[in-house]
UniProtKB/TrEMBL annotation:
Transmembrane segments: none annotated. It comes from Vreelandella salicampi. The gene is hflX. Signal peptide: none annotated. CDD domains: HflX. This is GTPase HflX. Its main location: cytoplasm. Its cofactor is Mg(2+). The lineage of its organism: Bacteria, Pseudomonadati, Pseudomonadota, Gammaproteobacteria, Oceanospirillales.
Length: 436
């Protein structure tokens, strides 16, 4: 650590303030889940109601006394706020309470640090932590009493502080450079998939909505999934075969949360870019959550922030087993799937979800009959390899009559490989205009 603080304890007193402004309010239940996800043991919860935060201690002198008494009663060594604290507020609270004080951003960063598994994920978390820490660095050197001035008290403090700031800036610069390389590698992978015309599906949604469980159920993977916030930090890609579409790449991404610290969004830009560049976004929603509408709004806000708000989206209402609801597809005015109700845990409705993927991605599937002479056996064999032949019989002349259904993209690629024109085999209604 770059500054000295009292040792953190496992037992924590929680502080939650209800503000009159709805936009500033946080969810106390979600706060409790965050604390438990971080591994702390909640001792008690101090609640307050204010018009606006106190500039010095956030909660005011009266509540500060209550908080001090709670710490003594529960012998707690940690106070966690369900709100963002300014560096001065955090410093003042630690000075008054003589214990460690953590705000909402610091709590989320701590959870992220525990969950990150890949090299990239650890770099992203470290970057967010360093940028968060840089604004609070001055607190570490109060023991030098720089503020008092005087001979012999100015230079060393300022020199040490500037040294640490320089080290921070250098480390942040180095991490940015390494993450730029990661972004470049991911961009190359995306371009390669784009050239191969392989569609990509990104799972997005509020944290603990069941994205990883759904991902595992669809792809037969073993990605870590748990009933806790931010179980997934590192993006995972898997191949999935979809009828009428062929192979697609599915990505499991980090969950969103209300008032997600902006620095975290910036730090996880490389990860979230998978969502921005997806062919289809699958917004997984906890159908049983009473705050699901608010959570949906928060996810859509983050998607807009990363430039993914114009990507086609399919909503998935998950956890219907908690609602005693049946799997179903809801369609828009054009008959396209808009919402699919499933239970990833019980693997109910997954066939409907894959059907919805097929309908949303296979937007140009051609279905026609073609007749092939015996010498065109290579074309016939390749169509069978693509599982494009629905039915086949032979006419009186010994020619193969095939009922074919496949994406136009795959048919055009096959024709190009064989050196033939696709329009030669297509009925006039399906033929593409010839570019001269």
């Amino acid at each position: 650590m770059f500054f000295e603080r009292p040792d953190a304890g496992e037992t924590a007193v929680l502080v939650h303030v209800d503000f009159h402004d709805e936009r500033e309010r946080e969810d106390a239940g979600e706060f409790l889940e965050l604390v438990r996800s971080a591994g702390a043991v909640p001792a008690t919860l101090l609640t307050a109601s204010r018009q606006r935060p106190d500039s010095r201690t956030f909660i005011g002198s009266g509540k500060l006394e209550e908080l001090r008494a709670m710490l003594a009663a529960h012998q707690a060594e940690l106070v966690i706020f369900n709100h963002g604290l300014s560096p001065s507020q955090q410093r003042n609270l630690e000075h008054e309470l003589k214990c460690r004080v953590l705000d909402r951003t610091g709590l989320i960063l701590d959870i992220f640090a525990q969950r990150a598994r890949t090299h990239e994920g650890k770099l992203q978390v470290e970057l967010a932590q360093l940028e968060y820490m840089s604004t609070r660095l001055v607190r570490g050197w109060t023991h030098l009493e720089r503020q008092k001035g005087g001979i012999g008290l100015r230079g060393p403090g300022e020199t040490q502080l500037e040294t640490d700031r320089r080290l921070l800036r250098a480390r942040i610069k180095a991490i940015h450079k390494r993450l730029d390389k990661v972004r470049s590698q991911r961009e190359q992978s995306r371009r390669a998939r784009s050239r191969a015309e392989i569609p990509s599906i990104s799972l997005v949604g509020y944290t603990n909505a069941g994205k990883s469980t759904l991902f595992n159920s669809l792809t037969d993977s073993t990605v870590y999934a748990a009933d806790q916030l931010f179980a997934t930090l590192d993006p995972t890609l898997r191949r999935l075969e979809i009828d009428d579409v062929g192979p697609v790449v599915m990505a499991d991404t980090v969950g969103f949360i209300r008032h997600l610290p902006h620095k975290l969004v910036e730090a996880f830009q490389a990860t979230l870019q998978e969502a921005a560049d997806a062919t289809l976004l699958v917004h997984v929603i906890d159908a049983a959550d009473p705050d699901r509408d608010v959570n949906v709004e928060q996810v859509e806000r983050v998607l807009k922030e990363i430039g993914a708000d114009d990507v086609p989206m399919l909503k998935v209402m998950n956890k219907i087993d908690q609602l005693d609801s049946a799997p179903r597809i809801e369609r828009d005015g054009n008959g396209m799937p808009e919402v699919v109700w499933v239970s990833a845990q019980e693997r109910r409705g997954l066939d409907l979800l894959e059907q919805a993927f097929s309908e949303r991605l296979a937007d140009d599937v051609i279905d026609f009959s073609m007749t092939l002479d015996p010498e065109q056996g290579k074309l016939r064999a390749r169509l069978h390899e693509l599982n494009a032949v629905r039915e086949e019989f032979f006419d009186e002349q010994g020619r193969s009559v095939l009922e074919v259904r496949l994406p136009r993209r795959d048919f055009n690629q096959l024709m190009a490989q064989l050196g033939e024109r696709a329009n030669t085999y297509l009925p006039e209604i399906l033929q593409e205009p010839i570019e001269w």
